[in-house]
Amino acid sequence: MLSILIAASIAAVPEVELQGGYMGGGGADPKAIALSLRAGVDFGDVVTLSALLVDVPGPDASYHGGYYTGPVPPDPSGMSGWAALAELRLHTPGAFQVFLGGAAGIGKLANRQCGGTSNCTENDILHGHPSLMLQGSAGIRIVPAAWGGFNVGVEVAMPLWNGQEDLAAPSALAISRIPETDVGRAGHGGVSVSVPPP
Question: CATH number for the domain including 118?
Fold first, then answer.
């Protein structure tokens, strides 16, 4: 048993990965920058266990009542949120890696409003609270031995945000609270850079 633990610790390589990308979906969906930080340990150049932090800094959604003045109607779209997840990633070994990942943890899609100015049907902004978040991802990365641990990659992720509610504008007399799940349209992708450990 001790020999297995020693072998696993020798084969374990720490990783830190920074990612910047874009979150959005179809033409009427909100768009936002998505940032993430992943820190983990790679075992046997095949399996990586990581902690993953995701930040969607905005822009925040705004209310759109359908009336406006001026030549250009306002765009109410926006999306912001955060997540803290544990991730398991399986990847091919070697200098060119293809990977699949799955993550689970806590997340909050703070607010979300559809895009466009005339075809926006969600006039009430979705507001969220911390709840279960799941995420699936796939991508590729290049890990040349000559780079001394640095690598670059591209990833596409599909998060499942839970805990959103439709909240009417502050001027409305009634506030509807309808739990919803936002999936798919909040997918994101980006370019990642891994930093070698000191």
Answer: 2.40.160.20
Q: Cα torsion at 32, 164, 102, 59 (round to 10°)?
A: 10
Cα separation of 46 and 30, whole Å?
35
Question: Do 182 and 158 touch, CB atoms closer than 8 A?
Answer: no
Number of structural domains found in the chain: 1
Query: Rounded mean pLDDT of the chain?
Result: 74
DSSP element (H, E) containing 23: strand 12-23
Q: With the CA atoms of 133, 158, 26 and 128 taken in that order, what torsion angle do they form, in degrees rounded to the nearest 10? A: 10
Sign of CA dihedral 136, 137, 143, 147: negative
pLDDT, tens digit, 9 for 90 and up, residues 113-162:
665 554 554 456 677 789 899 999 999 988 888 877 788 888 888 888 88
Parallel, antiparallel or unpaired: strands 131-142 and 96-113: antiparallel
**CA-CA-CA-CA torsion sign (113, 82, 38, 135):** negative
Give the domain extent around 131.
2-195
Summarize pLDDT for 161-179 with one digit per residue, the tens: 887 776 555 444 344 444 4
